[in-house]
Amino acid sequence: MKLLKEIPTRLWLFLFGIHAVYFLVAYFFGNIYTVDSYGYLHQAANLCNHHSWYAEDWQAPVLVDYFSFRPPLYACFIIFCKFISDSNFVILIIQNIISIANLLLLHNIYQRCGLDKKNSMYVLMVVLVFYPAQFVHANLVMTEIIFQGLLLLLFYRTLIFVQSVRVINVWWLSMLLSIALLTKPVIILFSIAIGLLIFYSAYQEKKLYLIYPLLMVPVTFHLICLQNKHSTGYYHFSSVKPIFHLKYNAKYTLLAKFGEYYADSTISAVMHQVNSKPSYGLRYETMQQQGNQVIMQYPFHYVKLFAKGCIAFFIDPGRYDLFHLFGVNDAGFNGLYHEFNVHGITALSNFVKQAPLGLLLILLLNICWNILITVCFVWFLFYKNAPIFLRVLVFVFVAYIAVATGVLGLSRYRVPVYPLISIAMVFAYQHFYLSRKHV
Questions:
Q1: What is the distance, to the nearest Å, from the Cα of residue 289 to the centroid of all Cα atoms in its chain?
Q2: What are φ and ψ of residue 56, in 5° steps?
Q3: Per-residue pLDDT tens for 199-255?
Q4: Stated pTM of the model
Q5: Fewest CB atoms less than 10 Å from the CB: which of 232, 239, 356, 393?
Q6: CA-CA distance, 409 to 356, in Å (whole number)?
Q7: CB of 386 within 8 A of CB of 427?
């Protein structure tokens, strides 16, 4: 309660106001679903009706990969919301509340980092105005805002742990990592990074009992794998890994080398082979092996594609987010990322010709802002007046998500760590603007 009282009234009003505006836009246009949204809704229904994590239509032909495609936490969140009301707009209302809580926590993190309360508040407002993806995803049936909250809490509790190496803080980190494992498969390797930090601190402090709460994380991992083995007959954490590896990493590597037709036909042939496997274990391993084979054959093209994806992660202006929110018809357009990889720079020219002028101007402002905040982020990593552990921590959180998304550097994937990137902007503002003011 004390933390809430310390939040400036202007910030409360701004956050409620901007969230309300985007919610009303989403309500008016009704574009609150993506392809992934239906998977989560199906999974919620299947949990209730069939006690299964299957994330597709139970009545349609079975897609075996979807028994382990999505961890169940977001589906459980949907079920909770359904107890309040059957309307999916209730999901959005609660997600907007969570988004506001995330940003209030971020404001508190600014103060924990030693930043001025008033200055950081105004910078936060500007940071949010130029990042509509935050509010678009608060108004989609998608897991990004929940995941953002978990990462912010992880960051906050890691800061506290570094400053106070106590067992209660390890319990917090272990619990949050376990919940994150039940939310998105991408977090799996990050759990190892946090675990290494805890091991190092326990060794330095000569408090080996600190590592005991960490056992919660591998136990959670093991239970998820057991559930997936029960559903598919194969012990594994998630089917996302081999699917993403083959259909994105390998496919776009082939596309960069040989073109769209060759990439599509090759991946289709591999999937025909995969679909003929007699067990799910062989299916999983074949997808992984075939993806590895392509990347090992053409490492230069993959590395180049991967680098482009990481750059796009930081500067993508969020075309899909805005077009989807306002229901802009872009039929025949497979996404700027795909079109750019297929047609090169001409794809950008074609997009500019067909995009609505108003949205085009917003996207132009967004990309300029994203470039600015990325420059500030790089500057912050070398800013000696910021504590070294803070710079390392921000870098690890942001870089992990950027690298984990690989070749698909979309604005959507930046949502969970964008608040942490904004820390750099506040430091930059205080350093450059305020230092000039006092000259």
A1: 26
A2: -145, 175
A3: 998 888 888 888 999 999 999 999 999 999 999 999 999 999 999 999 999 999 999
A4: 0.93
A5: 356
A6: 24
A7: yes
